[in-house]
Structure formats: C-alpha cells, structure tokens
Amino acid sequence: MRIRHPEGFSWGYNPITSLNGPHSDMLMDYGILKLHAGLDYSDDAKLEKVYLLLYGHVTLTCGGKTYDVQRERFLDDDFWLIDLPEGEAIRVTGIGEDAELAVVRTENTNVFPIKVHDRHNSVIEIRGQGYMDETGTRIVKTMMDYALAPESKIMIGEDIHYPGKWAGFPSHSHIQPEIYFYKFYPQNGFGLLKLGDEGVLIEHNDTVTIDPGLVHPQVSAPGYAMYFLWIIRHLEGNPYIKPDFEEQHLWVEKPGAKYWPEG
C-alpha cells in the first residue's frame, strides 16, 4: 500500500505504521521525526527502538551518553543510526534548522547493549554491475541484518538509485513484512514500483508497505536520483536471510545473456 506525504512532515513525530493501529500487519511502529533547533522528543516505549538520521543536525541522549550527529543530505554515506533494547529510553534534540529521522520500533525481549551503526560497521556495496547493460547498478548500504545484528528483530538499510536505473531485479519476494520509504533528488522526481501484479507510482516522502510474498522491483525516472529506506521485520524463528527470486527472470544475470535480438 502507498502512503503519501506530498506536503512533507509536521514538527515532531509523524506516525506512518503502528503496532496497534494502522498497518499493524507490518509488525512495526514506523514514522518520521522532524525537529528544529531546540525541539525535543523523548521515547521510553518498551520496544526495541532504531533511530536513523536522514539529514540535519541533532543530539541523542541515551544510556548515559550524548551523541552529536550531522548528515548533510539523505544521499550521503555519512549515515548514522542507533539501536536500543526495550529497557532503554532516548531523547532527541534538534540543533539545526531542520532535521529528519526515521524511527522504527518493534517487540523484542532480547537483552543487548545500545549499538551505533555507521559506515564503519555496515556493508556498502555497488550492486548490479556487469550485467543487464548496467541498468541495475546502484549503491546498497546494509546497516543491520541478521549477520550484523543478530540480537535485533529489525533489518534496515538504504538504496541509492542512479537516475533511470532499477533495483530489486530479477524480481524477488520474502515472507517477512517490509516497509519502503522514498526521497528524490530533485524532489519532483518519481519512480515506479511493481508490487505483486500492480504498478505503484512512488514520489518524494512516500511510504509503501510490502505484504509477504509480493515481488517488488522498481525503477527511478531518468534525471532523478532515488533514495529508499528499506526496513524488514524478522519473524519469530524465521529471520530474513535471503530473498526468493522469480525463476523466469534469472536468465538476465547469466554470462553472455542477450538483451536484444541479433540481426
């Protein structure tokens, strides 16, 4: 399902999905926290909590420490997130004129120390090189998955699309619920997502909820860089490890694949 915010977000916390409300089938609270200088937000929910800075300048206080964090824009590699167990609270304070953070919360009784994830303990890859005439080349930043954070119930990362290129192809699916959140540069850009058998228009500040088992490849419009945040909720006893691919499209990755009829 596509959830639109064409006018952007209000100051404070903007809920998008809820464990006990709209889109509860995603098994996660998800929203955008928007702060200006001096605006505070405190969170003591008895849930695992992930805070990812999308852009701006904030301080975050938790576990007896204060972190001063800046990120110029959502396309930058200077990403930063913090993962807290259910017993820890956090306070976030705006420092600059405008900052946005993605907030994810879910049920998780595992005990683990507060952990910061940034480019030094994450996996940054350029995927899609060497086949499909480079039409699927993109930057993938995996911040938390089952290998990097086995104590967590949340898998999270960012994709940066070069204009006009694809991600998630060959088409794949998985049984764990997933959320996509989009931004474009420039902001009037757009893309298209194949969600199961339906086509979905995606624009700046859109969120898409992805039900289990639906394939979800996507493409950005030429001229527009597309960012999307992806968040997967591990299922109890069945964490996300790898996707299931549609067999009919796997040929595109094989050496020597021909993409145009020869004369």
Characterise this structure.
This protein is mainly beta. The protein has a single domain, classed as Jelly Rolls, CATH 2.60.120. 0% of the residues lie in helices and 48% in strands. The chain contains no helices and 22 strands. Strands 2, 3, 4, 5, 6, 7, 8, 9 and 10 form a nine-stranded antiparallel beta sheet that branches. It has a seven-stranded antiparallel beta sheet with strand order 1-19-16-21-13-12-11, with no helix packed on it. The radius of gyration is 18 Å and the shape is globular. The protein starts with a strand and ends in an 18-residue tail after the last strand.
Write a brief structural summary.
By secondary structure, the chain is mostly beta strands.
Key descriptive features of the protein:
mainly beta, globular, 263 residues, 9-stranded antiparallel beta sheet, single chain, Jelly Rolls
